[in-house]
């Protein structure tokens, strides 16, 4: 990476806090080393992340045609997760922490023990000898805060807190960032949350919570389609609930998000439907949904719960 002059960064479609924070922090560090850096993503950042410093440098496009010396793909278990075409023949550096990474890069740095890709980026910035600025520290902190579910998921280790200590030393204000992420949302988001929880169904002896979203509900709640982050986690607050499945019906397809507690492995369920993710947070898309497929999703989650109890 030190030899490359022109570097392109990218990450997965429908970016989250980790993909945005990791890309922005690495871009800032590489620019400090005098490199030309572009970030190209297929989808814009959710409104929630509008406060991130330098967010405007991210270009939104579905292809990358200009020449560059290296492409750094962050947070993607496979190259097609980027949704960006024209990357295949490039010198690709794959940096990721998702189980099942298919090692598509010319260089692959896959670390399943990282709590967020931002942990890897933080180590990389260190190795490049670049000092953390407040903006870079903010990027990394938002990535770690959101990808760990506010420091609650598995994979949080002493290393996580060591990195956060360095981030805090760089001058960020954790309380202000938490306020931006958690108490600066829209009324529509809260209204939609109410509608979804009100209609929540429980399956498998109240161990699976099922949420269903239709476009009409978005309109009724006056909530933007990309303003639904975090809602899927809420049913986990119930003692008996072991997993949550959130079906988001849009047009002809259904995006499915699954969350779980402890040893319940929902990644395997997502993989069985062509998706992926982590043990406790995974997702996939059903292209041609039927009542039978959604039933099957719930059955496979029930099996994952049963397996975790053996
Ligand atoms: P979310 O439910 O928030 O969209 O995604 C949860 C986790 O699963 C994230 O780590 C995300 O990258 C991963 N994920 C979501 N959808 C897909 C998918 O279609 N394919 C793969 N490989 N991973 C996914
Ligand atoms: Mn991540």
From TrEMBL:
<dbReference type="InterPro" id="IPR003156">
    <property type="entry name" value="DHHA1_dom"/>
</dbReference>
<protein>
    <submittedName>
        <fullName>Bifunctional oligoribonuclease and PAP phosphatase NrnA</fullName>
    </submittedName>
</protein>
<dbReference type="Pfam" id="PF02272">
    <property type="entry name" value="DHHA1"/>
</dbReference>
<feature type="domain" description="DDH">
    <location>
        <begin position="7"/>
        <end position="144"/>
    </location>
</feature>
<dbReference type="InterPro" id="IPR001667">
    <property type="entry name" value="DDH_dom"/>
</dbReference>
<feature type="domain" description="DHHA1">
    <location>
        <begin position="220"/>
        <end position="292"/>
    </location>
</feature>
<dbReference type="InterPro" id="IPR038763">
    <property type="entry name" value="DHH_sf"/>
</dbReference>
<dbReference type="InterPro" id="IPR051319">
    <property type="entry name" value="Oligoribo/pAp-PDE_c-di-AMP_PDE"/>
</dbReference>
<dbReference type="Pfam" id="PF01368">
    <property type="entry name" value="DHH"/>
</dbReference>
<dbReference type="GO" id="GO:0003676">
    <property type="term" value="F:nucleic acid binding"/>
</dbReference>
């Amino acid at each position: 990476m030190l030899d490359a002059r022109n570097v392109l960064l990218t990450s997965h479609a429908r970016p989250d806090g980790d993909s945005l924070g990791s890309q922005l922090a690495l871009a800032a560090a590489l620019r400090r080393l005098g490199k030309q850096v572009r970030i190209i993503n297929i989808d814009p950042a959710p409104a929630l992340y509008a406060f991130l410093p330098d967010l405007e440098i991210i270009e939104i496009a579905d292809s990358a045609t200009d020449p560059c010396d290296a492409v750094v793909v962050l947070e993607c278990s496979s190259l097609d997760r980027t949704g960006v075409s024209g990357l295949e023949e490039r010198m690709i550096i794959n940096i990721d922490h998702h189980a099942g990474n298919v090692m598509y890069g010319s260089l692959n740095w896959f670390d399943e023990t990282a709590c967020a890709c931002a942990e890897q980026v933080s180590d990389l910035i260190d190795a490049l000898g670049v000092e953390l600025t407040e903006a870079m520290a903010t990027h990394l902190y938002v990535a770690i805060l959101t990808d760990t579910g506010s420091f609650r998921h598995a994979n949080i280790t002493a290393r996580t807190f060591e990195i956060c200590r360095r981030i805090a030393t760089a001058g960020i204000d954790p309380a202000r960032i938490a306020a931006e992420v958690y108490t600066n949302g829209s009324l529509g988001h809260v209204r939609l949350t109410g509608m979804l929880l009100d209609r929540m169904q429980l399956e498998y002896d109240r161990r699976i919570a099922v949420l269903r979203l239709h476009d009409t509900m978005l309109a009724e709640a006056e909530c933007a389609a990309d303003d639904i982050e975090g809602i899927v986690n809420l049913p986990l607050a119930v003692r008996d609930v072991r997993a949550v499945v959130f079906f988001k019906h849009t047009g002809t397809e259904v995006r499915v998000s699954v969350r779980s507690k402890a040893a319940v492995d929902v990644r395997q369920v997502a993989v069985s439907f062509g998706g992926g993710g982590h043990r406790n947070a995974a997702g996939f898309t059903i292209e041609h949904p039927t009542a039978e497929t959604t039933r099957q999703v719930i059955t496979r989650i029930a099996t994952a719960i049963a397996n975790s109890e053996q």
